[in-house]
Amino acid sequence: MKRVRVGAGLGFYGDSWQPVRASIERGGVQYIASDHLSELTLAILQKDRQKDPAAGYARDGLPMLVDLWPLAAQHGVKFILNAGGLNPEGARAAIAKAFRDKGWTATIATVTGDAVLERFDELAAAGESLAHMDSGAALSSVRSRMLFANAYLGAQPIVRALEQGADIVLTGRVADAALSLAPLVHELGWKWDDWNKLALGLTVGHLLECSGQGAGGNFGSAAEWADIPDYAHLGYPIAEVSEDASALFTKAPGTGGRISFDTLRQQLLYEVHDPHAYASPDVILDMGTLKFDDQGNDRVKVTGATGAPRPQKLKIVGGYHDGWMGTGMIGFSWPQAYAKCEKAAQTIRTLVAERGWPVEDMNVEYIGYDSLLGANADPTYRDQLNECFLRMTIRTQDRKIADAYGRLFPWLGLSGPPYVGSMKGVQGAKELLGIWPTLVRRELIEAKVEIDVEKT
Amino acid sequence: MRVPLWKIAHARSGDKADRADIGLFAFDAPTYEILKREVTKARVQEHFKAICEGPVELWPLDNLLALKIVLNRALQGGAARSLRMDNLGKAVAAQLLRMEIEAPADLPRLKAK
């Protein structure tokens, strides 16, 4: 029976690729599927591209490939990565140049056609409302502030790139799991309407797309997290997938972390809405029929995926400018650290009110007490804290006010409550982004998808 | 007896647009039955009333001994618009583990400790 081994690459823009080395060296992987784009990473890349039209791609793709390519080439490992961001051709140009400088050859493909902001009028003319898919709000409320809008493409264009001999496939926005599903379809010859097999492939992609989280990283628990071995060398998950739609999850020998029923099921439900209808462009997965066989020694076999036909519409996610955040922070030592933070918060409120600043929202948090647990923080020791940091943030439409707000805080060091810490400078205004998910008929998107294959 | 969820279950949370979502997992089958009975949409809504402005959705998954919980409109419009320290909702699962439920004293995890 045919089998293929796919290993997890990055799980976000800025993640470490060092664990990928072990997967290539000792994990027997044939493909690395690397996810560089979270929901709003494209907003960062859009700003890069505004400054430099040749930019707009995830900048960690290039150093990752330069670092790993000699080893990957030796082992015949291919890379599929969405590090193309808003400019897959630009990413390829940069990578091709680096490869040529080193005398390396590789066939690099780009997948484009996901960027749709420039096509909004055309899509509207074709009958798409582009309304917010959750709230139903009309696009007109945010259109002029929209910074990017990209469709989530599926695995099909990646498979076409692999069929044309690509060693490296650079995409823009695709469904994260499509990065893994594509090599499975390509190697195992699955049909595009074999929904149960595609559903297993989607499961694999979803379990690999968050790198270390699929191998015991961020294992959410009160005590059991401390039993995860060797965080420093935590391995990324690897799936060995068989033609008959079963997947054996493991990681490279000698790495830290853990592959178990517990660590995999945490990742399975991560950032999922309805688990009986987990939608991707290629298939809709019902997680309720999956079976996990934990064989011990970091080996778990997954079977039983059931899939429903792919959706008729593709999801688009846009990001729009939604004001500015001003941030101020100040910390106090015992005694009465919390009470002093409260007094500082009252003082700042007074200053903001006296200035008449147009503040839409203010958030007050006490780091060391409730900044992560919110209203579920336990107040038992609140008044005996060794130290406490006040963090106060505002939302305003005025960038200058967001900047000025942070400068209110240092004054408290000499004119506020005693035993101040953390005078580490002032944070400037940060742009806030709203998210705009919407749905569009897939044929309107797919008609513009292009694959381009080039040898360096 | 009253038992906090952290003694009998594990959980991870994340974000999608303005939703925070949580997977809550029993360590064993008897505990899963208790979670299904006790961790209701209404209880979760009450537990997160300070942040969750929309409805709570909840799906039990027998094959995973898990509950999938979604808090709608819980992230101040989404991670990149949120003013909170935990803008990604990563600690929302920790908040859930603080919930106390009624559970029998002979659950495996309670006997083992």
Gist?
Chain A is built from 13 helices and 19 strands. Chain A has a ten-stranded mixed sheet with strand order 11-12-8-7-1-2-3-6-4-19, with helices on both faces.
Secondary structure elements and their pairing?
The complex is a heterodimer of chains A (456) and B (113).
Chain A: E1 3-8, H1 18-26, E2 31-34, H2 41-51, H3 61-75, E3 78-81, H4 88-102, E4 107-112, H5 120-125, E5 146-151, H6 156-163, E6 168-171, H7 178-188, H8 195-208, E7 238-242, E8 246-250, H9 261-268, E9 278-279, E10 284-286, E11 291-296, E12 299-303, E13 306-308, E14 313-333, H10 337-355, E15 361-367, E16 387-396, H11 399-406, H12 412-415, E17 420-421, E18 430-441, H13 442-446, E19 450-455
Parallel strand pairs in A: 1-2, 2-3, 3-6, 4-6
Antiparallel strand pairs in A: 1-7, 4-19, 5-14, 7-8, 8-12, 9-10, 10-13, 11-12, 14-16, 14-17, 14-18, 15-16
Chain B: E1 2-4, E2 9-16, E3 19-26, H1 29-38, H2 41-47, E4 56-61, E5 66-71, H3 92-97, E6 100-102, H4 108-112
Antiparallel strand pairs in B: 1-6, 2-3, 3-5, 4-5
Describe this structure in words.
The complex is a heterodimer of chains A (456) and B (113). Chain A is of the alpha+beta class and 456 residues long. Helices cover 29% and strands 26% of the residues of chain A. Chain A has helices at 18-26, 41-51, 61-75, 88-102, 120-125, 156-163, 178-188, 195-208, 261-268, 337-355, 399-406, 412-415, 442-446; strands spanning 3-8, 31-34, 78-81, 107-112, 146-151, 168-171, 238-242, 246-250, 278-279, 284-286, 291-296, 299-303, 306-308, 313-333, 361-367, 387-396, 420-421, 430-441, 450-455. In chain A, a hairpin with a 4-residue loop joins strand 9 and strand 10 (284-286). Chain A is globular. Chain B is of the alpha+beta class and 113 residues long. Chain B has a single domain, classed as Alpha-Beta Plaits. Helices cover 25% and strands 30% of the residues of chain B. Chain B is built from 4 helices and 6 strands; from the N terminus they run βββααββαβα. The radius of gyration of chain B is 14 Å and the shape is elongated.
